[in-house]
Design a protein that fits this description.
Helix content is 40%, strand content 22%. The radius of gyration is 23 Å and the shape is globular. It has 455 residues and is α/β, with parallel strands linked by helices. The chain has two domains: 253 residues, Aldehyde Dehydrogenase, Chain A, domain 1 (3-Layer(aba) Sandwich), CATH 3.40.605.10; 188 residues, Aldehyde Dehydrogenase, Chain A, domain 2. Helix 3 packs across helix 4 and helix 9 packs across helix 10. It starts with a strand and ends with a strand. The site of nicotinamide-adenine-dinucleotide has 32 residues, from helix 7 and helix 8.
Length: 455
């Protein structure tokens, strides 16, 4: 049984039957049998299903937001934001799939024609994270289904109710039961899924789990995508509107209670404005409202996972021991629930875990730098490479800096942002492969090359 707990108060919301090795095998076989017919349907049919799925999300938005908030602890306004953001992503896929997946004629002369078609991979495993279950799930299952694949979707054990809601909505929208199936459970269920002879593995989660999966899947020669963590840096130059940058970056660091893969996790500030920026930033963070996630005015909710409280406490203790200056927060709040105060440190350096290891919580270190070169060096001094940003009035300076930073996405005067039109990917320990954009539609297909000689 999987006990679903409300992270705001520790109460049990539901107990779900988990999948076993046997039930996962049954689901796999059903998906394998059903996928070819799904792939043979005209794309227009699959598009219509996803359009109806979108309508279902709109029709149930308030209830879905409440479920998400109850199991993940996401403040209710942010749950609604995620669902509304999902609609924009679906619209992108609906608009782009036809052209992206259309067969291409690339040569026609002297009786010889050449073309490229986009074939589904087959049955794919979609193992997902809890922090943005609608976003990271739909980045995979929507284009995978549009491309004609069967999908075995394992939501995180921390977002299992949401995963089941997604399954119900897709089935109500006309996606056959066997073509999209939800697998309930934690790592064991994920392992059982990976033991099946699937044709692709699309994983979102931590580097630690991603590395294990890469090792297991590597020799099987199937498509493997890993969207992993980050330690995303931002550099604030000496020419910025300090108040504006502080507001934007406090949001980038603390939104979703700091539990975003692209949360700002490190801030470097030019020495000329360092003190003024820190003051403005701390003021912003102290103004963030922490409270019951069902309350419309709450901005900071509980952490989804209790175990992360210890990670944050250890980072705080390590930073303090090594001389960092604690400017806000720094401790967990009394139970029930997994609460941690929004926390800001200055006078940090890369000797501290806070500046090296993914925090995945409402905590941030601010480091003073002498100039652009030092900032670039420090931004790149990480095992990760998901996103990186710079705040400056000077476009050329921004381009120069961002061109030198190793990251999948780079931001000028913005942060913690994902666009369906742009590929979402990481370098180094942030993963391999990509989702979103037209490339994130193609990636659920294999290209078939046709050499056709007319007799
Ligand atoms: P996690 O690695 O603990 O779990 C991810 C998924 O893997 C869950 O569904 C889990 O049940 C499953 N799993 C665990 N062990 C497994 C195993 N041995 N075999 C198969 N499946 C297994 O990560 P999480 O806590 O759910 O997510 C947080 C992490 O995800 C953070 O590091 C965050 O940065 C990252 N993330 C990345 C992106 C991105 O787009 N790059 C997006 C969201 C989250």
């Amino acid at each position: 049984m999987l006990k679903v707990t409300n992270p705001a108060n520790g109460s049990t919301i539901a107990e779900l039957a988990t999948d076993t090795t046997q039930s996962v095998a049954v689901k796999y076989r059903a998906a394998r049998a059903a996928q070819p017919a799904w792939a043979r349907l005209p794309l227009e049919h699959r598009l219509a299903c996803i359009r109806r799925f979108r309508e279902g999300v709109v029709g149930h938005l308030e209830r879905l937001a409440a479920v998400l908030t109850s199991e993940v602890g996401k403040p209710i306004r942010q749950s609604r934001n995620e669902l509304n953001g999902l609609l924009g992503r679906i619209d992108f896929f609906l608009g782009a799939a036809g052209e992206t997946l259309a067969a291409r004629a690339v040569f026609d002369a002297d009786g010889m024609r050449e073309r490229i078609t986009y074939e589904p991979l087959g049955v794919v495993a979609n193992i997902s994270a809890w922090n943005y279950p609608y976003f990271v799930g739909a980045n995979v299952f929507v284009p995978a289904l549009l491309g004609g694949n069967g999908v075995l979707y394992k939501p995180s054990e921390y977002a299992a109710l949401t995963g089941l809601e997604i399954g119900n909505l897709l089935h109500a929208a006309g996606v056959p039961q066997d073509v999209f199936q939800v697998i309930v459970g934690a790592g064991e269920a994920g392992g059982a899924l990976l033991a099946q002879p699937v044709d692709g593995v699309f994983f979102t989660g931590s580097h630690a789990t991603g590395a294990k999966i890469a090792q297991a899947i590597g020799p099987r020669m199937i498509r493997l995508q890993l969207e992993l963590g980050g330690k995303d840096p931002t550099y604030v130059c000496d020419d910025v509107d300090i108040a504006g940058a502080a507001t934007s970056l406090a949001d980038g660091a603390m939104y979703n209670t700091g539990q975003s893969c692209c949360s700002v996790e490190r801030i470097y500030v030019h020495e000329r404005i360092h003190d003024a920026f820190v003051e403005a930033f701390v003021r912003e963070v102290k103004g963030l409202r922490i409270g019951d996630p069902t309350d419309e005015s709450s901005y900071i909710g509980p952490l989804t996972r209790e175990a992360q409280l210890e990670v944050l406490e250890a980072q705080v203790a390590d930073a303090r021991r090594k001389g960092a200056r604690l400017l806000a927060g720094g401790r967990r709040l009394d139970p029930p629930g997994n609460w941690f105060e929004p926390t800001v440190f200055s006078q940090v350096d890369h000797g501290m875990a806070l500046m090296r290891e993914e925090s995945f919580g409402p905590i941030i270190g601010i480091q003073k730098v002498a100039g652009d070169d030092e900032a670039v060096r420090l931004m790149n001094e990480t095992e990760y490479g998901l996103t990186a940003g710079v705040y400056t009035q000077d476009a050329a300076r921004a381009e120069r800096i961002l061109a030198q930073v190793a990251a999948g996405s780079v931001y000028w005067n913005c942060c913690d942002r994902v666009s369906p039109r742009l590929p979402w990917s990481g370098v180094k320990h942030s993963g391999i492969g990509l989702t979103l954009s037209t490339y994130g539609i193609e990636t659920f297909t294999r290209l078939k090359a046709w050499h056709l000689r007319t007799p």
